[in-house]
Amino acid sequence: MKPHHKYIGLDVHKERNEVAIADGITGEVRLYGSISNDLHALEKLVYKLRGQNVVLHFVYEAGPCGFVIARRLAQLGEDCTVIAPSLIPKKAGDHVKTDRRDAVTLARLHRAGELTAVRVPDERDEAIRDLVRARTDAVTDLRDNRHRLQAFLLRHGYKYTGKSHWTEAHLRYLRELVMAHAAHKVVLEEYLMAITQATERIQRLEQHITTQVVPWRMRPVVEALMGLRGIQLLTATALLAELGDLSRFGHPRQLMAYLGLVSREYSSPESFRGQGSITKAGNSHARWFVIESAQHYRLAPKVSKELSPRLEKLPQRLKEMSWNAQVRLHKKYWALMLRGKTVQKVQVAVARELVGFIWAMAREVKPLSD
Predict the structure, then answer these.
(1) Per-residue model confidence as pLDDT tens digits over 221-234
(2) Of 85, 93, 189, 195, which sits most exposed with the smallest number of CB within 10 A?
């Protein structure tokens, strides 16, 4: 008998999920109802919809509820696709949006094959990713607390005249400040304590990242990427935790587009070709790390004392790729600067080419088998 396909759209929320079903034979799309957002209710739904010669295809949007539903459905042997919300086709005149309509739309578009799937990360990869993002949150907290303290001191006429901020000399100056009012001294001490706590949290998280990478299946790829200038343990770990196995990208341009580093384009073959700013699509966290790394290529090519130990472990092929990256990207950096491009545009352009070297080096090394 011909299999009976059913496409189930789930509009997932914190408390409840709306369910809609698109029938693959009759073409009917109907609202099934609402279920609680817990795995027990999901299992009951699967058992109700299952039948002889029935094939279920679940779909829901990537969002704050994570990938728990997709992993549980995979354990139950069901097909589940997590899709990118920003790439859902929308009608220009459709201005009514409700949870029920969203579920029906997901089911209908999934049956038509018009939705774009996202990668469901391995649980271990996701754990490493959360650890790296926690470190980024700590860095953000540190920066915000520093800005608050500087604004507080500026309001009250205190200006540090030393060479650089946040050195030992600057922190000693802050601790020895004499404030006119006791309340101001309390504020100063609280800000200093918040800065100290954020700094210590960053250090603890970096130690945990170093420890967790050792048994990670992507460790060989991390070590390979560390052979590139500007990419050390934290950056390499963050990129692979966010992007996963880079061999899934068949061409480096696909990875560049995934990171949102390619230009917007509005072109017509008969009239003009217009390009704008970068799309900024895809993974913004990984894009930020790549652009930060690209800034190192303003310096002349050199195997520094920090890079040399990282290169010693790598095969000759990867050492040559690392050196070629330095030469090519340094040349591109200053060629664009001499053309009068802004620093930001230059860094993005260099980052886009750096992604090509990252893709090539990652494909030279295989992850560890589970």
Answers:
(1) 999 999 999 999 99
(2) 93
